Description:
Layout: H1 24-31, H2 45-48, H3 57-68, H4 73-80, H5 84-91, H6 99-109
Helix pairs in contact: 4-5
Amino acid sequence: MQEHTRKHPTETIELRFIGPIVNMAKAVETLKPLGFVDASDSVPWRELYPEYKDEDLPSVCLRGGRYREGLTQKQLADMIGIPQRHISEMENGKRPIGKEMAKRLGKALNIGYKVFL
């Protein structure tokens, strides 16, 4: 089985603001020199991937988070102390991800645990 050898960068953040629409352009221009980009014209991911249903999301998030961190199923399983087959079953939607398991996965993958619920 091949293993990932490079860790993908996760050093970006997304900011959201609530405020008067008249100040939006000023806020965008103020943040540009700091390296931020305006993503207001982006498309919601649900429009791009209509084949994913709500019940598929935890497994897709698990697979994506593991890939982003450059981990194999075995490495992730060892990190959180469960058999590798449990990771495989969760990624294929055959095993539910409970709240405690979601917290363990979230900590190991540097992601908020609620994406797995």
